[in-house]
Every structure is written in structure tokens, then in C-alpha cells.
Amino acid sequence: MLDAEAASAVATGEIIRLDAEPNRQYDYYVRLYGPLSRFSLRRTGRTDPATGQEKMARVRPPQGGFRDDPFAALVYALEVFDPVGQRAAKAAIFTHRVVAPRTPRLGADTAADALAICLDARGEARLDEIARLSGSDQADARAQLSTLVFDDPVTGRLVPAAEFPGNGRTPGTVPGSCEAWRAHTCCPRPDHRRRGPRPLRDAFQLTWLKGSEAKAGKKGQRT
């Protein structure tokens, strides 16, 4: 239901159907058992020293072990429960929209902003989309991005610098093999090295070498 509401600002027939189903199921449950958060009181035999009144313990129904479910809290949040009167009212999600479609960003002031929008909307850095958002051509957009992204020598796609091993990730977690990265960073061809920002190449080489030295050290200790 929430996914459908987030996808369309219009109350389509599908959304109306999905909205009605939770109401039907909740009403049916309450009619049979009572509120989701219901409880009974049990005497403890102890007295509150501050008030002098007997302490009572809340006893909740087993509900088939549902209380131990990690998502149980989300279900209990479907109602607004009054513990004094043991009454419950439906939460807002039953009566009106609680989500709305996101307004798409149509442009960006900088290539960095365009990159952030592209990652949020598409889950990956796409140069054509970044260029469109920033109002420039792809060559200019790539130059503005500079070391915010680098080019994967295996797939050719742009990879955000945050995913680069020199930024805290362990060697081997970037696309492609270490051999491919070494060939890329050491490649003498200008057209292959043009897109690889030097600081990132150096960071990768340093990280890769540290990992190799650590492995070699461990092997030496075992011998």
C-alpha cells in the first residue's frame, strides 16, 4: 500500500483496494480479540513505597508468540492505545495518505549535486544523467566531477569515490580484479590513464600494497 501511494499522487483503483484491506483485517481482529496492545492486570503482592498503593503487573496475551517477532512494533503502531480505558483508535495510516510521491529533481547547480541526485534516483553514477542535470555536455561534466568518481577499467562505468578502496574499503571490494586494477593504474597508455585521477590511483596502489604486505607477513609468521 505504501509503495503504491509513493508511486502515484492519484488515488487509483489499486490504491483504494489496498487501503481497504488493512482496515478490513484490523476490524476483524479487534472484533474477535480486542485491541492489539490490550493487557490485563495481575496483583504482585508488593506496595509502592511512594504512594502506598499495591503494585500491579501488566500481563499481555501471548498472541501466538507474535510479540517476539522483530517487526511486532510496527504492527502495534497501527493503533493509538489508551491503557487506562483499554480503548484503541486506528492510526492515521488507515484513514489518509501518510506518504506521497517524491518530487523529481529536474536540475542541479553543480556536477557534484547532480551526482548526488543521480545516485539517489538511480543507484549509480551515470554520466549522461549527470550531464543533463548539470546542464553541460558529458566531457565537461566528467571534468567537473574530477576525483568524486573514477572509471572502472573493467566495466567502463563510473564508480563513486566513496566506493574506492583507498577511502576505507578493503582491497578486492571494487568491481574487477586486483590484476585489472594494477594493469589500469600502471598502464602507460595516456588514453587509458586519462580518466583515472592520480590521487585515487595512488590510494588504490597503497591500499593494495598494504594488503599484500600484511598477507606476506602472516605467511612469514607461520613459517
Please explain how this structure is put together.
This protein is α+β, with helices and mostly antiparallel strands and 223 residues long. The chain contains nine helices and six strands. The strands form three sheets. Strands 1-2 form a two-stranded antiparallel sheet. A hairpin with a 6-residue loop joins strand 5 and strand 6. Helix 4 crosses helix 5, helix 5 crosses helix 6 and helix 7 crosses helix 9. The chain starts with a helix and ends with a helix. About 21% of the residues have low confidence.
List keywords for this structure.
single chain, two-stranded antiparallel ribbon, 223 residues, two-stranded antiparallel sheet, alpha+beta
Major β-sheet profile:
2 strands, antiparallel
Question: How many DSSP-defined strands?
Answer: 6
The percent of residues in helical segments reads 40-55%
Overall average residue pLDDT: 75
Rough shape?
A: elongated
Structural class category: alpha+beta
Output the number of helix runs: 9
- N-to-C order of helices and strands: HHEEHEEHHHEEHHH
Low-confidence stretches: 167-201, 203-214
- Beta-strand percentage? 5-15%
Order of the strands making up the biggest sheet: 1-2
Question: In whole angstroms, how far apart are the ends?
Answer: 61 Å
Radius of gyration: 29 Å
